[in-house]
Amino acid sequence: MQLNSLGFPRIGRRRELKFALEQYWRGELSRNELVAQAKALRQTHWQWQADAGVERLPVGDFAYYDQVLTLAATLNVIPERHRDGDKVDLDTLFRVARGRAPSGKAAAAAEMTKYFNTNYHYIVPELHPNQTFSIAWTQLFDEVEEVKALGYDPKPCILGPVSFLYLSKAYGSEFDKLSLLPQLLVTYAELLARFAAQGVSWVQIEEPVLALDLDESWQAAFATAYQAFTCVSVKLLLTTYYGSVAHHADIIQTLPVAGLHLDLVSAPEQLEVFLPRLGQQQVLSLGLINGRNVWAEDLDLIAERIAPVARELGDRLWLATSCSLLHTPVDLDVETALKPELKRQLAFARQKLLELRSLNTLLTVPNGADAAAIAAECVARRTARAQAADAAVAARLDALTKADFERQSAFPERQQQQQQRLKLPLLPTTTIGSFPQTPAIRGLRNRFRKGEISALEYDNQLRQVCRNTIDRQLKLGIDVLVHGEAERNDMVEYFGEQLEGVGFTKHGWVQSYGSRCVKPPLIYGDVSRPKPMTLDWAEYAQSLTDKPVKGMLTGPVTILHWSFAREDISRDTLCKQIALAIRDEVADLERVGIAIIQIDEPAFREGLPLRRCDWKAYLDWAVDSFKLSAACVRDNTQIHTHMCYSEFNDTIAAIAAMDADVITIETSRSAMELLRAFEDFEYPAEIGPGVYDIHSPNTPDVGAMVTLMERAARRIPLRQLWVNPDCGLKTRTWDEVEPALRNMVDATRELRRRLG
């Protein structure tokens, strides 16, 4: 049986790609040097996969920013504002993604949003009614040649034509994106023919939209698309992931593809649907190793379940990860400080490929010594998991009543009390929470971790940073302040390090977008809060000013989704455990006089199941978890939450049910399009639609922000509106942040003059 790798993380096990990209953007690295470092990383990753036994090495999983953007560039789908002549080059990609590159003119970056239900963000391709397609960027073909030069068989991995259109946006005017399909298929056929000319035998063509509910026109598009490829000589592996595609089994069965990949981690039941429908010559690739989590698999149980399929299909069965390993850290071997009992339960990307090899051993030589050793290790891991239970946490959950999830009064009464207490002006200005994590701050944290400075010295220097951050906001004239979060390495990891039942790594980095990486905590046991986590910083910051300073927390849903959570406890239960820990922190913040507490939930929509029939169950427990974390406060304490890069139209009722007093959301890249949700839904509370894109280094114009807020005011009552950036400012510099916030405050003053 072949081992099938759907893709490997691109950042490097020590984030080599991140640092190279940022050096290039700063002008510290030449383009040739960046390209050389990227090539060296690819070759290392290919070698690891080959050493694990993968025969066909994935090509196209590497991207300098995002693989969807790479494909868009390949197809010449580049907005006019980002072009610098007719040629598409590396800087073209960076102008699309960031709004700026070392060459060419700055322009508004393209929209960015979550890739299905993951924490990975992709750059949304922009299509217009007269869109044409042609091959304009040759990275995919160049990398095929790189693999061949190493002596291996390349397997290009590309997003399929239907999914590419679906994930794109109609830009400038509404039109049917499917009207572009015939012309797009011509270019896809050319792309596949070029692969064939290079000697490629298999192409992994990914159609993840098959996991969604699709209307008849999109369903019909699959038959049209794949009939167009019948004359192409490469074999197509139709690849699906993140959910079941069984509801489209009739469509998939008719497609002329040589193989099918199914994600059996997220939807094991679909195997029974597709196995009887498989063609006599078709390959079946089964995603048996979780590509989105770090916990080592129970390989003995998987082998027992799959053994009959292996006997039936023989070499037509491929063993695979559920999806690309993009969502996992690179290599567990560099984690030298983890406790052995925790480390033995983990598998990062490199180790997951070895799990595939071990699974192959269990299926092909089930009675050998190697198989016995593998099975014994699986039993030992299950024993270790069972020992992580905390009876006190379970008892506290069992004791909850309905009253624990509800605020004392309805929002209108709370709003009146909060206005009396806070005395905020019309259109209050604020920021989302974090301020620049400067090289000095990162260096200070690094010195503290190495033991070069004492805890007292570290704390004193961070207090100076906090004081400086408050002073800067006061000079800018911002109404509701934040302490800046200089002490936090990450909005989730910071809390994970202080919770019981949660572990963390040193090098477990995962790409979120571009050069932005996160290091998710490991939820290995029942979760509780042994002591306050943010109290000292909130108290200190509030002591520096009479203006309100927000207490800043990450919400339970986001901590859950942005962690690697254990899989033997329901996500509902884990989320409520985390909610109780956050609730304790909320109560402490209120006790010391913090009047505004923000509980961020940017991952709220991310956890939404892909099919609508499964939404209600998730939304019920996600909403309840947020309410549980916040419902303990008095009416005159204002609860905020923040959400970014999400479509709100279809979940607006659930967001309202969270019963937050103020929500801040990302809207600037979409030019307030996301506020369409509020045309048909009368949102009951206050809202701050982001007025500038913090992910771009460009300084927002006062007039542009005024225009955006005027659009918002046409949909939302003025007294409900706040003014704020899209997201936190951690990744920006002070030279970028201060002029942007100054313009935001000036824009607000102009709006107050016009509208007030």
TrEMBL record:
Binds 1 zinc ion per subunit. Binds 2 Zn(2+) ions per subunit. Zn(2+) 1 binds at H642, C644, E666, C727. L-methionine binds at I432, G433, S434, E485, D600. Pathway: Amino-acid biosynthesis; L-methionine biosynthesis via de novo pathway; L-methionine from L-homocysteine (MetE route): step 1/1. Keywords: Amino-acid biosynthesis, Metal-binding, Methionine biosynthesis, Methyltransferase, Repeat, Transferase, Zinc. 5-methyltetrahydropteroyltri-L-glutamate binds at R15, E16, L17, K18, K114, N119, R516, C517, W562, E606. This is 5-methyltetrahydropteroyltriglutamate--homocysteine methyltransferase. It comes from Shewanella amazonensis (strain ATCC BAA-1098 / SB2B).
